[in-house]
Amino acid sequence: MTTTPSSVLPALLADNPLLGNHEIVPYHLIKAEHVEPAITHVIESNLRQLAQLLPEQLESPTWEGLVKPLEAMHQRLLAVLQPEQLLSRHHHLAVIEAYAKCRERVQAYESAIKHNRTVQAALQLLQQSPQALEFDETQQAALNQALRAARLAGVGTQRPTQIRIERLHVELEGLYQTFADNLNAASQGWTLAINDETALAGIAPAVRASMAQRAREAGLSGWLLTLELPLVLAVASQAHDRSLREQVYKAFYTQASDQGPRAGENDNGPVLQRILAAHAELAEASGYRSYASLAQATRMFDEAADVEQLLLQLIDKVRPAAQAEFAPVQELAAVFSVPTLEAWDCNYYQEKYLQIHHGVMELKVRELRIMGYSCTLWRAVYEAAEVQIRRQRQAGHGCDQRTKGTIRSVSE
Fold it and tell me: Where is the Peptidase M3A/M3B catalytic domain (predicted)?
């Protein structure tokens, strides 16, 4: 994580863990009050730098003077924003909410950069300059992608068209976030309190302990099941209680919809309808037949039909193998008096099939301790790349002393 060197930070920001140079992001130090000042500092710093470099680059653009600073600005903001993606909502709700409050400002900044005609003009001058002939393939691709992004953002079109495209992009960003917020609210809104442990038969002790911990945190006795993915997967593949599997399956796969146990609450149906309509409007404003065609402009295929053809070919290739794997699982379910295998049965009987016929338990594979293999792994990394690894909390554990180097710390 690299943002602004700590030596040039204002005094009030010097201790902000979202700023400065860190080999490993200090997640444990990030607090809600750090978020807005860090984002504000990076955005304002980037805008100042952009205002300073553009006049010169419009006269004589260079790779070092234009493209590299633009990429550095992008990376500085990204370094401040990325920690949100890895923070647990359960433990860092205040920090995540602080990021949410800054979302509109970030979107406005990104939109301003994306739709900046002066930046595009400088990039075009650079592409047309004699020095561009000496750029390597990576540089040429980066420059082409930057200009393509500006073109797709409407830069260079008539002003009314550009304004329309810009507004659609802003609206879509808001719709995507609304969709995510609805999904999160729906996930947080469903819980199942369980007081009879027999209902949890088959579920691993570690998972049950996690559910008991959640119940205690909620001031309840027994166990509390939520729609967090690890718990949902554990119930789907381990719970003997078929009705519990069905209940959790339906709750999970109908989140934020007009169906299921919380039908209509945080319903994303209208949001999806508006997203589709905005996609169609954006494609039309950008000169494409459909949003699928517009999306392909930044991908490896020329036409959306090529993607569809590839997917259909893949389906034809994998269907026989999938059917062959599924048939014995269906037969096993019938042995357990389940004549029709429902969606909430598949993971459970697949796990049973592996246990019975191959002696394999996915749970045990996941629980395999890494320490029995880490010494060999560390030595292999050292020999292949001369990268030395040490444990963050307790170094060594009988390993070769080379594995206690100082290049990077890897926590286990």
Answer: 238-363
Altogether, the residues listed in the chain come to a count of 412
Closest CA to 41 of 68, 71, 14, 72: 14
- CA angle 15/18/23 to nearest 5° reads 100
Digit-coded pLDDT (tens) for 392-412? 544 334 444 333 333 333 333
- For residue 376, is it left (φ>0), alpha (ψ between -120 and 50) or beta? alpha
| 256 dihedral zone (left: phi>0; alpha: psi -120 to 50; beta) | left
Which residues on neighbouring strands pair with residue 390, listed in sequence order? 409
What is the model's pLDDT at position 406? 37
Q: What is the pTM for the complete model shown?
A: 0.73
Strand-strand pairing, 191-194 and 223-226: antiparallel
CB 76 within 8 A of CB 42: yes
Chain centroid to CA 355: 33
* Residue ranges, the chain, pLDDT below 70: 1-12, 88-90, 360-412
Q: Which residue reads 């286990």 in tokens?
A: 412
pLDDT digits (tens, 9 = 90+) for 100-139: 899 989 988 998 898 899 999 999 999 999 999 999 999 9
Please name each of the domains of the chain with its CATH number: 7-156 (1.10.1370.40), 191-254 (no CATH), 302-385 (no CATH)
DSSP class of residue 410? E
Q: Which residue has the tokens 């000496």?
A: 134
How far apart are the C-alpha atoms of 289 and 71, rounded to whole Å? 32
In contact, 202 and 238? CB cutoff 8 Å: yes
pLDDT of residue 207: 95
